[in-house]
Structure to design on (655 residues):
């Protein structure tokens, strides 16, 4: 039977060694490797540059490990560049809320998050679609398509494909579901637009809050906007149900 | 990345709760083995006689911290999917002070009170009951101090980001600090035992 | 001292080696002697470093399996919220703290509640195997039962208020948040330890 004191000393030494190596290594991640270069070419990477490249790389990884045939294709490179840089295609959550409330003709709202997230909460009148299913949406002349997701990239990619497939009016909600919660459901209202924003919020069952003139209003709003404070069992982009409380 | 294990372990499902039970059983086992279910032993930490609490807590923190760092480096775990408790600077300092005072009065913390109650200690049961009442009362009252309660919100702020250094640097500093604390703890225990006449100097 | 006691304490001392003898005696003698006086076969507590590393591995396993760490106060908060909901549903839904701690699936579907039930089971198993099960009130030698229990209840209630403010306790914030290097958690550790040392100094007579 080994001497427990010696074993404890061994543990301490191991900790010291691992801690020192951690200092040397610095960050607990290693640089991306081979699959990255095969899936994303340099040109595509440049095209995605304005669109949060890291998120794009992660999404591509998820697709490839999920077994879907993700084609690193020209539509992505050309159209996504257009989507990312063209402000006309990007609308705010409040703009979408107004369109829904006013019953804009031909409006279709597509939710690109996964089924669990959709079940938990979705924008009223939205339809749940997987990114790969978008090819089944056929172009119609008077339609306005609005896409949203959690990560600002699935919707951009989807919009790129739909635009490529011939849809005339395709929009993306800036900030996705998060922006819907922060700007429509839980807005902090102040100034001239307070009444209209509050009315819009209440239409969707939200709770508008008045801004208090102190720095902590930002804090309180940030605290309310974080999923931790508010929605129990909310699902994040990976379908991983967020835990709360400790 | 294979961890944290995905979808099957979504909250509220059978596999997730089975994991919770397993983790809880191991947690309770370790606490009782260390003697932390015993209030006078636990309070020995705060009267500087018995540094078990410090040794157990910081060994656990160092082990888990190093484990997270190296499992992430190996690509086994995705740290961005691990839930980090959010930071609220003012409330957590104030809450810490109140909590520490209560703990010194009671002699046990909520987790160890459950262990103590499980082993038949009536004081543990009383602490757990008092804790329940305290949480209930405070929960009813806390909306009146909502402004303070939600102040200092920084989200999931980690020390490396806050201090502007690499995570490995903070990891190294915590390990070094813990090892130094353990050496100091040994000296303090010996000094106190000598003073109390329990051992020849 | 009975013959059994005389056997117990030297065996303890024999377990310790060189400079850890003092710590072993300081750590265990009064506790083990008290139990031995009752004629029970009892094992000494485990080495704190080994127990701590084991605890750290449990914490790591929790991160790997469930993507979250340990906790205790959250279970109590969910229980409190559920109680209020049963008694006065309006109050529970209007109160933001209680509402966020209600679980849609009920009390036994909450991760932390099930985890705390596990803590109870694990603690019982460990004590049963070590012969440390005993219905008693642990207290200092100079403290009687009633003051001890009053202090326990009051201390527990105060801890409850602190845990609500800080969104956690030593398991959730100090252990889990500490391992994750969360700023608020480390602030909590410093504040809690500091306050505990101060109050323990004031009440130092009651633990010895």
């Amino acid at each position: 039977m080994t001497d427990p004191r010696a074993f404890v000393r061994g543990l301490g030494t191991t900790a010291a060694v691992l801690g020192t190596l951690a200092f040397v290594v610095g960050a607990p991640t290693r640089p991306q490797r081979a699959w990255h270069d095969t899936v994303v070419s340099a040109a595509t990477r440049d095209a995605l540059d304005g669109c949060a490249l890291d998120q794009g790389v992660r999404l591509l990884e998820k697709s490839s490990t999920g077994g879907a045939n993700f084609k690193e294709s020209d539509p992505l490179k050309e159209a996504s560049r257009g989507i990312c840089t063209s402000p006309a295609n990007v609308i705010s959550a409040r703009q979408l809320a107004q369109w829904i409330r006013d019953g804009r003709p031909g409006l279709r709202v597509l939710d690109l998050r996964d089924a669990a997230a959709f079940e938990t909460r979705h924008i009223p009148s939205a339809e749940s679609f997987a990114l790969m299913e978008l090819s089944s949406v056929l172009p119609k002349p008077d339609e306005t398509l609005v896409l949203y997701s959690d990560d600002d990239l699935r919707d951009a990619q989807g919009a790129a494909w739909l635009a490529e497939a011939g849809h005339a009016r395709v929009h993306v909600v800036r900030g996705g579901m998060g922006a819907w919660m922060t700007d429509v459901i839980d807005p902090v209202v102040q100034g001239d637009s307070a009444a209209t924003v509050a009315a819009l919020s209440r239409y969707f069952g939200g709770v508008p809050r008045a801004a208090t003139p102190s720095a902590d209003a930002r804090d309180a709003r940030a605290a309310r906007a974080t999923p931790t404070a508010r929605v129990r069992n909310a699902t994040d982009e990976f379908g991983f149900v967020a835990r709360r409380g400790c | 990345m294979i961890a944290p294990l995905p979808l099957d372990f979504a909250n509220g499902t059978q596999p997730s709760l089975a994991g919770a039970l397993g983790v809880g059983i191991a947690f309770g086992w370790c606490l009782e083995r260390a003697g932390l279910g015993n209030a006078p032993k636990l309070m020995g930490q705060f009267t500087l006689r018995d540094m078990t609490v410090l040794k157990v807590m910081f060994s656990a923190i160092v082990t888990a911290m190093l484990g997270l760092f190296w499992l992430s480096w190996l690509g086994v775990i995705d740290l961005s999917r691990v839930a980090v408790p959010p930071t609220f600077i003012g409330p957590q300092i104030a809450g810490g002070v109140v909590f520490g005072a209560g703990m010194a009065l009671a002699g046990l913390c909520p987790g160890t009170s459950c262990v103590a109650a499980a082993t038949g200690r009536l004081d543990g049961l009383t602490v757990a009951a008092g804790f329940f009442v305290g949480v209930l009362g405070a929960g009813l009252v806390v909306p009146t101090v909502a402004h303070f309660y939600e102040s200092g919100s920084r989200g999931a702020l980690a020390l490396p980001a806050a201090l502007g250094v690499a995570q490995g640097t903070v990891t190294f500093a915590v390990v070094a600090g813990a090892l130094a604390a353990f050496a100091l703890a040994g000296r303090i225990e010996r000094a106190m035992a000598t003073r109390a006449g329990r051992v020849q100097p | 001292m009975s013959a059994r006691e005389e056997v117990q304490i030297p065996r303890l001392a024999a377990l310790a080696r060189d400079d850890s003898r003092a710590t072993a005696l300081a750590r265990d003698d009064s506790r083990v002697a008290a139990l031995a006086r009752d004629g029970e076969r009892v094992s000494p507590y485990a080495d704190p470093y080994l127990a701590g590393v084991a605890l750290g591995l449990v914490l790591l396993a929790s991160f790997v399996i469930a993507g979250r760490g340990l906790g205790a106060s959250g279970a109590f908060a969910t229980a409190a919220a559920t109680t209020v909901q049963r008694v006065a549903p309006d109050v529970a839904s209007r109160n933001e703290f209680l509402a966020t701690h209600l679980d849609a699936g009920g009390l036994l579907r909450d991760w932390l509640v099930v985890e705390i039930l596990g803590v109870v089971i694990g603690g019982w198993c460990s004590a049963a195997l070590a012969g440390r099960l005993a219905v008693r009130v642990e207290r200092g030698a100079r403290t009687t039962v009633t003051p001890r229990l009053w202090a326990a209840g009051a201390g527990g209630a105060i801890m409850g208020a602190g845990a609500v403010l800080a969104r956690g306790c030593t398991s959730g914030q100090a252990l889990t948040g500490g391992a994750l290097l969360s700023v608020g958690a480390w602030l909590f550790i410093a504040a809690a330890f500091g306050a505990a040392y101060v109050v323990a100094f004031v009440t130092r007579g009651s633990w010895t």
About this structure: Chain B has a mean pLDDT of 90.
